[in-house]
């Protein structure tokens, strides 16, 4: 029996993926790193420190440390989210359905807590979440399931009794590895790909979510 809904954040609740892409392009290109927008799309859902370390190891740069580059990218994303407040369609509908189904609600994100807090406050939805977990300081980020397992443990609910809501394939892998039921809302340009078949439910928007899909 499903007892909890655990949401991803970037790309699912907050339409921040274009901001991540813009921030990464701006910062990396200023350091002389050769990177395209497609490169930023291909790493959607992966923790920013892992992305930065990858480019440092493969291309390198002089000047700021990897940690400083992470902060530069993060600060730019927070600035853009705070200005534009880009809530994805169907967010309030999904949260309300979960609450009406008496599900506990938590968040499990690859993003740093600084961005999680800023984003939820900007959208005015912080109070909906009983627990918020970041993979920021974990040994492995998504697709490793640890951040989802931590969220379930903090609610004292077995992972098998949780449903995860995701937008990225990396996040979907993490949710399924945690043995959770998974609903995915992929970006439209990749939604037709066969790989989403491992999800339990695939939606075009959170507006399509129904009580039956929650399995509560």
TrEMBL record:
**Cofactor(s) needed by this chain:** Mg(2+)
Pfam families of this UniProt entry?
HAD_2
Which Enzyme Commission number(s) are listed?
3.1.3.22, 3.1.3.50, 3.1.3.68
Give this protein's Gene Ontology molecular function annotations: 2-deoxyglucose-6-phosphatase activity; mannitol-1-phosphatase activity; sorbitol-6-phosphatase activity
The superkingdom of the source organism is Bacteria
InterPro entries the record matches: Beta-PGM-like (IPR051600), HAD-like_sf (IPR036412), HAD-SF_hydro_IA (IPR006439), HAD_2 (IPR041492), HAD_sf (IPR023214), PGP-like_dom2 (IPR023198)
UniProt entry keywords in alphabetical sequence: Carbohydrate metabolism, Hydrolase, Magnesium, Metal-binding
Task: Identify its protein family.
Answer: Belongs to the HAD-like hydrolase superfamily. CbbY/CbbZ/Gph/YieH family.
User: Which NCBIfam families does this chain map to?
Assistant: HAD-SF-IA-v3, PRK10826.1
What's the protein name?
Hexitol phosphatase HxpB
Q: What organism is listed for this UniProt entry?
A: Grimontia kaedaensis
């Amino acid at each position: 029996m499903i007892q909890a809904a655990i949401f991803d954040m970037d790309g699912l609740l907050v339409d921040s993926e274009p901001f991540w892409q813009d921030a990464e392009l701006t910062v990396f290109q200023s350091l002389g790193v050769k990177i395209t927008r497609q490169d930023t799309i291909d790493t959607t859902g992966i923790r920013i420190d892992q992305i930065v370390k990858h480019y440092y190891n493969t291309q390198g740069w002089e000047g700021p440390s990897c940690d400083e580059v992470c902060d530069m990218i993060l600060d730019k994303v927070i600035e853009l989210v705070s200005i534009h407040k880009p809530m994805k369609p169907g967010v309030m509908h999904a949260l309300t359905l979960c609450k009406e189904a008496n599900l506990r609600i938590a968040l499990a994100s690859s993003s740093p807590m600084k961005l999680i807090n800023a984003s939820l406050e900007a959208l005015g939805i912080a109070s909906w979440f009983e627990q918020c977990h970041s993979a920021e300081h974990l040994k492995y980020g998504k697709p490793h399931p640890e951040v989802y397992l931590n969220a379930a443990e903090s609610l004292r609910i077995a992972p098998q009794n949780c449903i995860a809501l995701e937008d990225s394939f990396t996040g979907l892998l993490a949710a399924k590895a945690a043995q959770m039921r998974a609903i995915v809302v992929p970006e439209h340009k990749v939604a037709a790909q066969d790989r989403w078949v491992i999800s339990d439910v695939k939606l075009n928007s959170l507006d399509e979510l129904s009580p039956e899909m929650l399995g509560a």
